[in-house]
Write a structure and sequence with these properties.
Length: 337
């Protein structure tokens, strides 16, 4: 108990020191403890997550300014109260993502199901955050776009050339279509972070506590076959937008396309790593494959591999090929693990 209390205090202190980026610290310990049915300890982690913003804000705007340690404008009691409440809810909500993962692991969910459920949960939180502060977000996008334009003009002035019109046009296009990309881009980022989160949680449970963790691995994760129909609909919507441009169609088409592209790109990466593990190529061949992937465009190629896996079922084909080769030649140890 004393050991956990010391770890808890250290985690809280680190969270306070790193606020507001420490929001991602609490889900993993919450997931590990929930998966092991340590519910009192899991609750303590959520309490630490909830206390982090309050302590940080009190230190930042009350204690330090009062002691003359910091020269910062006072935002006012009302603004501080809103900031504290919003940050506390955010920290607890992300901590609950870890609890959700732990419950899924305890119930023997597959790796893929766990990733998709966590992605959906965090994506809903993100979407609500954007929708409730849409005007502030669009203002930030406009300010960022203007800063980029200034940077392009400054760079051109230093070299004595005219600003690159393609760069300026790209900035203008991204500013105008930010709403058509933000949800898809955030979904893609959340999906990839969820994969890393589940993999790390699985690693800790297996190596530290000797427990199985979620069923399956990243290399075995495969999107459901029915998802390809959403990909087809998304492609048709993108084509329709080219013919009949509209803001609503742009938001639905491009956001869905970006999100689905991320899913199939990650599936392609999963297949690639599955093949590396199965074939165990020597180091020279492995480096050559990676070099070719990078030069031909890894992301589009991986996305195509992941998409056509719906019909190809490449992992099964890899298993059949490896089994046939080992039956013929016997297992080989002269390969890279």
């Amino acid at each position: 108990m004393l050991q956990f209390a010391l770890i808890w205090a250290g985690l809280l202190a680190l969270g306070v020191a790193l606020y507001p980026i420490s929001v991602g610290m609490y889900p993993i310990p919450a997931a590990v403890l929930a998966a092991r049915n340590r519910w009192k300890h899991t609750l303590a982690i959520l309490v630490a997550a909830g206390l982090t913003p309050t302590i940080s804000i009190v230190l930042r705007w009350v204690v330090l300014p009062a002691g003359g340690g910091e020269d910062a404008p006072d935002p006012g009691a009302g603004a501080l109260a809103l900031l504290t409440a919003g940050s506390t809810l955010e920290y607890i909500a992300f901590g609950l993502a870890g609890v959700l993962a732990g419950v899924g692991i305890a119930r023997m969910w597959s790796y893929g199901r766990l990733v998709h459920v966590l992605t959906a949960y965090v994506f809903v939180l993100m979407a609500l955050n954007f929708l409730t502060a849409w005007d502030a977000w669009t203002s930030q996008v406009g300010a960022m776009a203007e800063n980029l334009r200034v940077a392009v003009h400054q760079q051109a002035g230093q070299t004595g050339n005219e600003p690159d019109p393609d760069q300026l046009n790209l900035i203008t296009w991204l500013e105008a279509h930010a709403g058509s990309l933000v949800f898809g881009a955030n979904y893609a980022a959340i999906f990839m972070v969820s994969c890393m989160f589940v993999s790390l949680t699985r690693f800790i449970l297996r190596t530290r506590f000797g427990e199985a963790g979620p069923q399956g691995t990243f290399t075995q994760m495969r999107p459901p076959d029915w998802l390809v129909w959403l990909a087809i609909v998304s492609a048709l919507l993108c084509l329709a937008y080219q013919r009949w441009p509209s803001h609503a169609l742009s938001v639905v088409a491009w956001n869905s396309a970006v999100g689905l592209a991320a899913i199939y790109c990650v599936n392609g990466l999963s297949i690639f790593l599955y093949a590396v593990h199965a074939f165990r190529p020597n180091l020279l061949i492995f480096v050559l494959i990676v070099f070719v992937l990078i030069n031909v465009g890894a992301m589009p190629l991986l996305m195509l591999i992941g998409l056509f896996d719906t019909w190809g079922d490449y992992r099964r084909k890899i298993d059949v090929f490896v089994a046939a080769r080992e039956k013929k030649d016997g297992p080989s140890d002269d390969r890279m693990v």
